[in-house]
Amino acid sequence: MDRRQKKTREAIFAAFTALLSEKNYNQISVQDIIDTADIGRTTFYTHFETKDFLLKDLCEELFGHIIETAMGFPQGHYHCNCASADDSVFLHLLRHLQENDRNILELLSSQNNEIFLRYFKSNLKRLIITQYADKGLLKDSSLPEDYLVNHITSSFVETVDWWLSRDMKESPEIITEYYLESIKYLVN
Amino acid sequence: MDRRQKKTREAIFAAFTALLSEKNYNQISVQDIIDTADIGRTTFYTHFETKDFLLKDLCEELFGHIIETAMGFPQGHYHCNCASADDSVFLHLLRHLQENDRNILELLSSQNNEIFLRYFKSNLKRLIITQYADKGLLKDSSLPEDYLVNHITSSFVETVDWWLSRDMKESPEIITEYYLESIKYLVN
DNA sequence: TATATACAGAACAATATGTTTGTTATATTA
DNA sequence: TAATATAACAAACATATTGTTCTGTATATA
Fold it and tell me: What is the widest separation between alpha-carbon atoms in chain A?
């Protein structure tokens, strides 16, 4: 890929992220992004069809990365400093959020958080299916598997939202405990 | 209140609701609303400062009503045909959604559902606090009350979302069972 | 009937949108 | 290094939206 393209793309992402942390998504104009990124008008439109596509691409990069990293867990620990191999994948995710992904954190805490929480959820679902459903770790119950997967997934997202809305007062370990406690009767 | 004002307000709400069920919120312009409602430009702005305020007012009317109705439950049953006084407040809400509130249902199922689900959640939280927390019906656990209330609230909202996303295949009774099953270890 | 006010209609400057055209700067490759 | 391709730029564009201001008309309320 052309170095110029990469630079421009990154400049747009950076400008967009900066704007998102201070403004509502709806109130951000393409003009704002162009001005902040300091690029030509034409350039923006060669990279992204609309503002919505920019958002989509940004989310796919951010959440795609964090989920893919967690996908191999706990087999591959990559370069992150996990306390032990017994750490749950959730603790892993929370640590990742807290330590490595300032960008994601800012977006998830911003006034636009619902947008990003939704993207987070749809990516996380894949992870839950791999880690629980496919491994047969869901407890037998009268609940349909799809309902259960949805419940477990959104409960984690809501937990993260709750944590962030209270300025991450608690440690990732505590939050993981809360979360696992709230769903412990549903999984093995 | 002046009859003219009421009519105009309702015309705007109707136009806005119609537009929301076919377009994304971001893509609806004030001009669209004006054209659809067939009112003067000035008129819109005397009623609503911005599109966001219109959204806020609409949500407050819709969710305010549905939650207030449920608030007195099961003491006052109002005019709805509940099977028995033993019906849970959740079953009551689902029936209300299915039978009485075509508007809300359409909005909650539309491509803009996340906006309305959020409003739904914030209103529902008050109800959960009244019905569970204040009555001491939350099971003792290591979880902070605020976390628990948030979990129970968002689980219901997510349940409704799941139900709607599958075109309400199941009956309100079944959905209530699913929901209560998923949180039964947390409440009395 | 008299008075107040909600609405309509037109016009406004300011801004945003998405596209086009021609030019310059910079990667890639041979 | 030189040749070629292409990314980015700048300027201009028609079009649309925004929020406001003005004047005149219609319709509530008292």
Answer: 58
Is A142 in the B-facing interface, judged by CB distances under 8 Å?
yes
B187, β-bridge pairs: B138
A62 within 8 A of A107, measured Cβ to Cβ: yes
Positions in chain B short of pLDDT 50: 75-85
C-alpha closest to that of B159 among B176, B139, B146, B138:
B176
A128, A182, A183, A184: best to mutate for the B interface, most B CBs within 10 A: A182
Altogether, the residues listed in chain A come to a count of 188
- Beta-bridged to residue A187, according to DSSP, are A138
- CA neighbours closer than 13 Å in the CB half-sphere of residue A95: 16
Q: How confident is the model over A164-177, as pLDDT tens digits?
A: 999 999 999 999 99
Residue of A nearest to B176 (CA): A143
- pLDDT digits over B157-183, tens only? 999 999 999 999 999 999 999 999 999
pLDDT at B71: 85
**Partners of residue B159 in chain A, C-beta under 8 Å:** 147, 151
Q: Which of residues 30-69 of B touch strand D (CB under 7 A)?
A: 30-32, 41-42, 45, 50-51
Q: How far apart are CA A63 and CA A65, in angstroms?
A: 5
Distance from CA of B1 to the nearest CA of A (A): 33
More confident residue, A80 or A45: A45
DSSP A142: S
State the best of A30, A112, A147 to mutate against chain B, taking most chain B CBs within 10 Å: A147
**Token code pair at residue A154:** 């959104």
Alpha-carbon span B172 to B91, nearest angstrom = 6
User: How many residues appear in chain B?
Assistant: 188
Rounded CA-CA distance B123/B120 in Å is: 5
Q: Comparing C-alpha atoms, which of A100, A107, A108, A88 is closest to residue A159?
A: A108
